[in-house]
Amino acid sequence: MVCSCSVHLCTNRSNPGSRKHHFFSFSLKNIERTQQWVNAVGRKGLIPTKHSKICKDHFHKNDFKKNIGGSYLLKLNVTAIPSIFPNYSEIIYKAKMQCLEVKSLKVVGCSSDIPHTKNNEPDQS
User: Model pTM?
Assistant: First the structure.
């Protein structure tokens, strides 16, 4: 089963057998902790299931237990809450700027504000 991060705009994914990313499940049995994670992620309408995961990129180094015996298995402290998120305002700004650039060239697909002719081709005027 493919595993993907529940954090908005995070593109980390892992295929079966792949060890590229570490993912952590919501603690569904601990309602208080689950709610803390949902609040931290801030995704509107997020209802975690047993398949919902958050990748290690959203946790600080001190959120992990110390590995004893050289194990590569990462374990979270019970108090760990995801708190590292990208600067979404910068991502959204760049996307809007790209959209404005494309719109000025009258390329179809970026905005519904682009005028169309009867045969659904962009207006060249």
Answer: 0.64
